[in-house]
From TrEMBL, chain A:
Protein name: Branched-chain amino acid ABC transporter permease
Organism placement in taxonomy: Bacteria, Bacillati, Actinomycetota, Actinomycetes, Kitasatosporales
Localization terms from the record: Cell membrane
One of the record's GO cellular component terms: plasma membrane
Organism superkingdom: Bacteria
CDD domains in the record: TM_PBP1_LivH_like (cd06582)
TrEMBL record, chain B:
PROSITE patterns attached to this UniProt entry: ABC_TRANSPORTER_2
Annotated InterPro entries: AAA+_ATPase (IPR003593), ABC_AA/LPS_Transport (IPR051120), ABC_transporter-like_ATP-bd (IPR003439), BCA_ABC_TP_C (IPR032823), P-loop_NTPase (IPR027417)
Single Gene Ontology MF annotation: ATP binding
CDD domains in the record: ABC_Mj1267_LivG_branched (cd03219)
Protein name: ABC transporter ATP-binding protein
Organism: Yinghuangia soli
Gene3D superfamilies the UniProt entry points to: P-loop containing nucleotide triphosphate hydrolases (3.40.50.300)
Alphabetical keyword list: ATP-binding, Nucleotide-binding, Transport
Segments traversing the membrane: none
Domain ABC transporter: 6-247
Automatic annotation (TrEMBL), chain C:
Superkingdom to which the source organism belongs: Bacteria
Location of the protein in the cell: Cell membrane
CDD domains on file: TM_PBP1_LivM_like
Record has Cell membrane as a keyword: yes
One Pfam short name: BPD_transp_2
Keyword S-adenosyl-L-methionine: no
Keyword field: Cell membrane, Membrane, Transmembrane, Transmembrane helix
Origin species: Yinghuangia soli
Protein name, UniProt field: Branched-chain amino acid ABC transporter permease
InterPro entries the record matches: ABC_transp_permease, LivM-like
CC annotations in GO: plasma membrane
Residue ranges, annotated region (Disordered): 320-341
Length: 287, 251, 341
């Protein structure tokens, strides 16, 4: 019974990590309709930079902040220099961001080598919590809370502040957005920076959870993409739900039928997309 | 019953909360020229899509040459003898004019299943296609990509493609829309000259064209047929005048 | 019309020279470059097969590593378990690749654009998941090492001989794809790319045509995967990695997806660049990343698309100054700017 609980909470914690990664994607991909396959690379930038600074003795929270800011700036550079030229052209966006991901991944490999590294667990969150007979890492429990909190915050930002409306206006009809005085390039730039900054935050925390290696950028990217699409493009609540489902399916799969783990995960996602391309909570998207 | 070439009965098409077609009945006898007119958003194109099979109605039935085709997909209705053009020309832009015709003809026979010989060398496709091009004065443009053609030529090509399949029922969606007056006259002439064995249903915004070409006119407004009759009857119908004047007043 | 014009003679001569060069290549270079050339041929075939779905079918798949990998594992499992000869391996691989691709096509009937891309990716990942975790069959992450080529006739087993075998297989496959692409069936797939509504209103079953495009593509992609594993002598999850799907997509875009030989050219260019760059630096992935970025920004029509555009413009210019587009003088003013003052 307790093992079962541990697996479930582990699944939810992994799902929370996926949501942290996916939250940035929901914004850039779901809202801006910009496909960023370098999202995982920004996850790595955050994680490796924080790891580097923290092991050099920098204060943990400062290291975290540095990682997030660096990735946000990096993301804005990519958006400004390249991506904004490819607005609405998904295929070139994919190729371009994949190229960016290759460069970042390769440079990380050159500087840090291929062995896994792990940024430290946030101070105060080390060690286990004990509830009766049940023992579980505190950090992972907190991660679930952070994911839910982040979902609420991002959701509220998009729903109740002008920023959300501006982004949606800029995406839906750039001409009109411009006409009513929204500075579309600036909005896109900032939103993209937020997206990659969130990826870096996920990298720092996720790195402490699962550790980092140059190729782990793509692993989380694929799962996060699934979360975003299964949840329905642009739906934060959908992404959170999907992240929990994917986390649980992944966890149970690995425990109960390891030979079929990845297959069941991806095959069920594929089956869902085949019959319901708009995802679980998305609106109709036939174009 | 079977005298009707194409008929929609009690057709309703619901998109979410919007009812594009509301209990429309339209029965066109064989050989007739029927024009559909009505203000923008009256549901004319939706009705076409229901008749041709691009859409399935929420309720109601469609019969083609006496056969219930409500659940028959577009490609099978096409094989039963229905041809249509599209409101915005929808051709195979990156293929040549000749290839457009050849592909259309190939769908008529087993030629479309051939996968080892070039399109132009299968059976008599090449000769037939060239005959179609010559017949419609497109012979000089055979090797041009469709997207390089002038708009008027594209519209003529659409009708040529539809006619090349020897359809029994032809649906023309705004054949003269966007054409210069000269091109529009040419196209009107071509449609008027179509053999009487073919039943033609057309959506047409230009009243003059609609009234010249048609035997019967059906007027749609807000998803319903509000009037039907000969061009003369319709032209003097108060409801029709109201619908059009109302639109003019709104605009 | 019947006689040979100068243009046709030139084309014929160039074609003959190319064929002669390809056949004689092992005599002109050392074994390393023969190996490289073999890889180019096989990746070129893979890219050409991919383009039946991508460039001609208008469907951007990100799942073709699955069919390539299925071909590869057919060799690995067939040869190491049951000692299958190539004449058994190849048909099995073709059938499996085609069947998997047909499933992809069926699953993708309702999706377009980015959704099709993600769905094919998910499907390919599901198959890669099998390769990864069904360790008893696939050897898991390590894959299947030391796959023997003993089943091949000794004349084509090694080096130059294997190159000629690959050349023959690739030539036959590319010729078949060429015939298919020009045929009514292949052309109607292009028709679906241009307008599904038009094609179905003309009487075509567009869904079936999309499935056919996938099936053809998957079958030939599997052949490329088979030959690649015979060449390498091993197969692993790397043969199914989704980055292979991305790479073949970039081959097609870079070379020119609207041209039959564009993807082949793209494969040759990237493979050649990899060999060349790798003699100078270990950072090939960084260079590849730059290639991807440049492709996305500047080569949406591919090298052949660009070349075709340049040729057309040159013709326009020769046709007379009046017909020349206004852009021409602007180009000329830019040239002297670089010259020393």
């Amino acid at each position: 019974m307790l093992t079962w609980l541990t697996h479930s909470v582990n699944g939810l914690a992994y799902g929370s990590l996926l949501f942290l990664v996916a939250s940035g994607l929901t914004i850039t991909f779901g809202l801006m309709r910009t496909v960023n396959l370098a999202h995982g690379a920004f996850y790595l930038i955050g994680g490796y930079l924080a790891y580097d600074l923290a092991t050099d003795g920098t204060d943990y929270w400062l290291a975290l902040l540095a990682g997030v800011v660096a990735a946000a700036i990096g993301g804005m550079i990519v958006e400004r220099a390249f991506l904004h030229r490819l607005a609405g052209r998904e295929l070139p966006q994919i190729v371009l961001t994949l190229g960016v991901a290759y460069i970042i991944g390769d440079q990380i490999l050159a500087n840090y080598g291929g062995d896994p590294v792990a940024p430290p667990t946030p101070p105060g969150l080390e060690g286990p919590v004990t509830i009766g007979d049940w023992i579980f890492p505190k950090f992972r429990l907190v991660m679930i809370g952070v994911a839910i909190g982040l979902a609420l915050v991002v959701g509220a930002l998009l729903k109740y502040t002008p920023t959300g409306a501006k982004v949606r206006a800029a995406v839906d009809d750039e001409e009109i957005a411009r006409a009513v005085g929204i500075r579309v390039p600036l909005v896109f730039l900032l939103v993209f920076g937020c997206g990659t900054g969130l990826a870096a935050f996920a990298g720092v925390w996720g790195g402490a959870f699962t550790s980092l290696a140059p190729e782990s950028g793509f692993e989380v990217l694929l799962l996060a993409l699934i979360v975003v699409v299964v949840g329905g493009l642009g739906s934060i609540g959908g992404a959170l739900t999907a992240a929990f489902i994917v986390g649980l399916v992944d966890q149970y799969g690995k425990v109960w039928f390891p030979e079929w783990a990845l297959f069941t995960l991806y095959a069920s996602v594929a089956a869902l997309l085949a019959v319901r391309p708009s995802g679980l909570f998305g609106k109709a998207v036939f174009r | 019953m079977t005298d009707y070439a194409i008929a929609g009965r009690n057709l309703t098409m619901q998109f979410g909360t919007f009812r594009a077609n509301d209990d429309i009945t339209l029965a066109v006898p064989a050989g007739e020229r029927r024009a559909l007119i009505g203000p923008n958003g009256a549901g004319k194109s939706t009705l076409f899509n229901l008749l041709a099979g691009q859409l399935r109605p929420t309720s109601g039935t469609v019969t083609l040459l006496g056969r219930d085709v409500t659940r028959v997909p577009a490609h099978r209705r096409a094989r039963l003898g229905l041809a249509r053009t599209f409101q915005l020309t929808d051709l195979l832009d990156e293929l040549t004019v000749r290839e457009n015709v050849q592909l259309t003809l190939a769908a008529q026979s087993s030629a479309h299943r051939v996968f080892w010989r070039p399109l132009g060398s299968v059976g008599t496709l090449a000769a037939e296609a060239d005959a179609v091009l010559a017949q419609w004065d497109l012979g000089d443009f055979g090797d041009r990509l469709v997207r390089e053609l002038a708009y008027g030529q594209q519209r003529i090509l659409e009708i040529a493609l539809a006619m090349s399949r020897n359809p029994q029922v032809l649906l023309l969606d705004e054949p003269t829309a966007g054409l210069s007056p000269a091109d529009a006259r040419k196209l009107t002439g071509l449609v008027a000259a179509l053999p009487r064995t073919i039943t033609v249903v057309m959506i047409e915004h230009d009243m003059e064209v609609a009234f010249t070409l048609s035997d019967q006119v059906s007027v749609l407004q807000q998803g319903r047929v509000i009037a039907a009759g000969t061009p003369d009857e319709v032209a003097t119908d108060n409801r029709v005048l109201e619908a059009y004047l109302g639109e003019a007043a709104d605009a | 019309m019947r006689g040979l014009s100068t243009g046709r003679l030139t084309a014929l001569a160039a074609g003959l020279a190319a064929v002669a060069g390809l056949v004689l290549l092992p005599f002109l270079t050392d074994s390393f470059y023969t190996f490289v050339a073999t890889r180019m041929l096989l990746l070129g075939l893979f890219a050409t097969a991919y383009n039946a779905v991508f460039g001609f079918g208008g469907m951007a798949s990100l799942g073709h590593a699955a069919f390539y990998g299925i071909g590869g594992y057919s060799v690995g499992i067939g040869v190491t378990r049951w000692d299958w000869p190539p004449l058994v391996v190849l048909p099995v691989a073709i059938v499996l690749g085609a069947a998997a691709a047909a499933v992809f096509g069926i699953m993708c009937l309702r999706v377009r654009g980015i959704y099709l891309l993600l769905l094919t990716l998910a499907l390919a990942q599901a198959i890669a998941g099998l390769a990864f975790y069904q360790t008893e069959w696939t050897g898991g992450d390590n894959g299947i090492p030391s796959i023997s080529r003993d089943g091949l006739p000794s004349a084509v087993r090694e080096g130059d001989g294997f190159y000629w075998l690959s050349l023959g297989v690739v030539a036959v496959c590319v010729a078949l794809l060429w015939m298919y692409q020009r045929s009514p069936l292949g052309m109607s797939v292009v028709g679906v790319r241009e307008s599904e509504a038009r094609m179905s209103a003309t009487g075509y079953r567009t869904g079936r045509l999309r499935i056919i495009a996938f099936t053809v593509s998957g079958a030939f992609a599997a052949v490329a995967g088979v030959m690649e594993v015979y060449l390498q002598g091993s197969v692993s999850t790397a043969n199914m990695h989704w980055q292979i799907s991305a790479e073949v997509l970039v081959f097609a875009i870079l070379g020119g997806a609207r041209h039959f030989l564009g993807p082949f050219l793209g494969a040759v260019m990237v493979t050649g660049l990899e060999v060349w760059v790798s003699t100078y630096t270990d950072r090939w992935m960084t260079v590849l990343g730059i290639v991807y970025i440049a492709t996305a920004l500047f080569l949406a029509d591919g090298v052949l698309g660009r070349a075709g555009w340049a040729v057309r413009r040159a013709k326009d210019l020769r046709a007379g100054p009046a017909a020349a587009p206004a852009a021409a003088p602007k180009d000329r003013t830019e040239l002297p700017a670089e010259a020393p003052a």
